[in-house]
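INFO worker-7 received task bundle
INFO bundle size: 2
INFO processing item 0
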Amino acid sequence: MESFRARSAATQPPAPPARGTASERLVWIDWLKVLSVVAVFVYHAAEPFLVINWLVSNDERSITLSAVAGFAYLFGLPLMFLLAGATAWLSLGRRSLGGYGMIRAQRLLVPLVVGILVLTPLQWWLVAAIARGGEDPLNTIGWFFGGIRLEATPRWFGDYGLHLWFIAFLLAYAILSLPLLGALRRPAGARLLDRLAGLPTPILLFLLFVPILASQWLLRIPAPAYRDWADFVLWLGFFLVGVILIADPRLLDRVVGNGLRLVGVGLALLAIALVMVGVFLATGVIPAGGASTLTQLEQGPAFDAASLSYITVRTAAGTALVGGALWLGVRFLHRQPSWLPWASRAVLPFYVLHHPITLAVAAVVVQWPLGVWPKFAVILGVSAVASFAATVLFMRSRLGRAVFGSSPEGSRSPATAPVVAPADPFAIHAGEPVAAADALRSVVDVLQASVARHAGSQALQWKEGGRWTGMTFAELWARVRAASLGLQQRGVRAGDHVVIISRSRPEWVIADFAALALGAVVCPIYPAESDARIEGIARGLRPRLMFVEDERQLSRFGDIAPTILLAGPDDASRGAVTLADLEGRGASCEPAAVRAWESGIDGLDRSTLATIVQTIDEEGVARGAVLTHGNVLHNLVAARDRLPLRRGDVMLSTLPLSHILERSSVLIG
């Protein structure tokens, strides 16, 4: 449950509070994951009072809690596995399938094995010790391990792992989904997604739903038990749908676009299911000895009209409500508070640790002479505090990081997450006195110095129509100034995020320096990334404005922020605002506005944030590296000292300008 965290490459100044971090994953996925696990925690806290028996049960039960829990169960677990499938696609990234599989196995298999060996016997001992007023733990350990029997059913993981069955299922789904993940990365997979995206919405939703329903028709009657094959295949279906929806956001958009309708359908189907049960019971349609109650329809369906109808309506209602939950997440959960990335990383350890804590608290509280609701409140409150504290402590410990595969950085709690900058983070520049290093205060200063020295020399050259053409430093600066003034008129200010999604082209350089001159933070995104990843990164950055290369990108990402088209005016259509339009507006500015813009450049210094660039950490996970103007200047000074460059030398651009080395090379001359 990693996130696209901002991390400085050389120093780590504090990021602006509103725009300091971004998420590789879509923010709503993290929101829904956290809320889902919180809901699971509340469910477990309520289990002593449900009509079904738990490890610890209260004498008095609550119909209200049972009804709410049953409603949430209908779509809650399918939603969690759908989110897991979406996260699987985003986590795959540019990894090989084997590398992705190994990381999934490491992060899920270790807590699963440790939990079964340690937490499960502990929980059984707690139940026995509290119920009997004492119990020898060695007796419990011997009883537990002596009674383990391997069985060819997924129920095994719940029987011997208790709540850890969820991790076992996730691990199984990660392995089973590898062929689909690999297929969707190939051209044939892209063509399949295109075909699906071209279907009418009702047909698309029908095709996504039918395999899930067919699996329930085939398996729900012979294997109806909780966590048996019917549940295993049901949740696998939602996991795979999550992969497909996030692999092509056009498909997700179609589901979300019908979200409110799906909520209505789901609630209507629930009402129909309840009416059906009542009618079947009243009219005697359910045969004697068959499923005669709602509980029996759930746990012991027969091969008859009543059971098949109930399975159909139940599955359809749960699926529709999952679509409605996606709509709520995408529509309303798009803001990223500072604690959300930490909470997303804490989901797995919290899930593992909360169950034994809740069980221990419940085993004590159910014996108190109180009503259902006071007991439930005590269990909920005490377990929440204890589970949160245990999660924080465990994530900070070496043992916790070893079990959950998290880094020391990932273990920080929300209170300790911000990075404190050194008192003078730019006091040392490799092998060079500070005074000399500070002669140039910003990246824009470097370009201005080159313009002053080489105004008539070629700054950029590129092929156009099979012939080389170019732009002098003076021409480049004039276009940068005009574009920057145009950006200023469109509301771009210091500290704003400006995203660039484009292949290398001269307009890329102009857009880059135009934004930097205003003190904005330029955030390039590799255009070769999948649309899902581009959208996830761009939305997480919350840009003030975006530059895109062509009409396809404009139509695909233009709803994220106001967007400027880098393509020339001849290539633009439908009234799109182009870079040429921006330059035209800036070139018409009054002299006073130009002087104010120039004084703004003088206000930039080495501590000003310059860019957030994509990089890959030691675990192969995408990150955002925050670089200040001082960071970039440090590299430029070092490169000039070491590279044998002379005036007139030509540097060939081979890396994309989204790469910080290629961007820096523009300034080295």
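INFO item 0 finished
INFO processing item 1
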Amino acid sequence: MKCRKNSFLCRMAAGIIAAVLMLSVMPMSAFATNPYLPSWEYIPDGEPHVFNGRVYIYGSHDLADVYGGGCLGDYEAWSAPVDDLNNWTHHGTMYKKTQDADYKTGMTMLASDCAYKNGKYYLYYSPGGKVSVAISDDPAGPFEYYGKVVYQNGDVMKESFDPAILVDDDGRNYLYTGGKSQVMELSNDMLTVISEPKRLVPRKDEDANTVGCITNPDDLKGCAFYEGTSIRKFGSTYYLVWCNEKTHEYSYATSSSPVGPFTFRGIIISNAGKMSDTDMATYPWGNIHGGMVEIKGQMYIFYHRQANGMGTRWWSGRQACAEPITVNPDGSIVRAEMTSQGLNGGPLNAFNQYCADIACYLRTPEGAFESPQKIGPYNNEFSKDLHGITNTTDMSIAGFKYLDFGNEADLSMNFMTRIRAMGFEGKVGIYIDNPDSGRKIGEFAIPQNASKDWYTVTTPVENVTGTHALYLVFDITDSSATDKDYLCDVSTFQFTKNVDIGMTVGVSQLVEGYAANVPVTVSGEGLGDISVKILSKDGQTLYGESAMQGDGKAVVRIDAGKKISAGAYDVVVFSGGAVKAAELKVVSPSESIWSPEIVSVSEKVGIKFSEEISASAAKFEVKIGGLPVSAAIVADNTVLTNKDYSQLKSGDVIIVSGIKYPALFPSYSFTFMITNR
């Protein structure tokens, strides 16, 4: 956003708002969600590996708003410390697809995997039906092209993709591929195949009794190989994982040898939300791929689920997700449930604000369907910094698992959400535990003339304690709506506590593009830890954030570099589950009261003058936010005193310097030229 060039308050406020909003979008160390990466980042096929106390993700990279945009991006590096799986860091691009020796425009870079050996990290990836390797000294890269996987006669191994790599405890190297489920041993150059490829899991159209090495082929029915091989060794047991023929299920088999034979054990997770073959699909499903990892004694399955996978965005944005899993003493895995809480280590605090794209349950009354069919609700990218749920057709349901409401049985509560209406009358029911038979705790109406721009709805709900799933049921009551029409888009949601908060914001208007400090004073009884954020109206972009000091005062800083545009923003006080908001306006330079033409600015500062400056102006007073500020005004190297500036004439270059206002503004200087109006 750009403030009027010399409107200091606007600039400062704008910068603060931007900083607060951005913090609310990124998963912070306070809690984690699914997806565990920022909403704008799509890393499917994620293979997790722990290197040097951090868990790194190796996958592919989808591009939103590109038809068939799956795997079209470069390989990106993300990691988190093993003791804080809520705090992911983007290290940048680890490997560009243009680095591949056979790169061609439009080439996809399919799933990847990584292994460490002899001081080097080897990235195995699949461009154009083969497996190639890149090498680095660091698990986050940058990686350099190393070569193609070849047979001993030099021929390139083809018709393979989705590689998985295992360096075993004895130092031997095994490559698994996903075009065909097969394994082969590599030499210590990590490129040359030195054994005959051995088939592992047959495809649907192959006979499991004669193809592969599954010891219990009759149990494999419905779970034959489709794609997405992954391999892990835990203790003395090897776990082979694959996307089965249903495409939305991740199956696994175990063995005492890296090359099998393997015994089929079952299903780890389904990204259709199914917990059994007879269950209704409760999430728009598609292919699944990822891997297992043990972190500090806890096992996890990393996988992806579909988003943006509708219409012109087919296969163009799959969310990186993860769930803790339980491994029984016999090595079998308890089937995992798809949740919103993911790596959080437990249910999410119901009184935090969340992006609605953490929904793990999205269906019509008939269930959910394969992602590209565009039937019922789905998680969507409205813009890079704005995500949520769309296509909420009649009686469709969005669910979130799980939320912790605490134990305050006498608490008065509200449900708050950010929506935009589609022009149809309806209502949204708020349920816990089950959308059909669970407890209805509240409801809010959406009138036919409701805003088609984003706005906030706050509605009272019944008191809830303990841990529960949350469901929103979208009921269109408008007779003019068709079965393809939908009620609203949803961007954020949270529960709030009814606690009386007094709030004063020291400024009311900022100018886009300028740095600013926004002072906030808060008062009230029984308030917990308090933070103040400046947020976009949809609640998804953070422009500034500050903790409240013991005196009930905070100053939220907005830096000039924050991209905050003219418009309305919210200054929001968070205290436990209590929320209080005030509006803050950011105006463009043309709307601010600054009027002179600016010739040069040594540092952009937003200054408000009590009257327009022109060649005929006799006096003017410098103010910031309506407060007078001491300043030295210099014209033609002469200090003008007593606020008598009758000497000014058109063409004079004025320097204002030494502006100071304790606790609110630092010292600034700027220049402008007096002009005739």
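INFO item 1 finished
INFO post-check item 1: Residues 1-29, 592-677 have pLDDT under 50 and may be disordered.
INFO post-check item 1: Helices lie at 8-25.
INFO worker-7 idle
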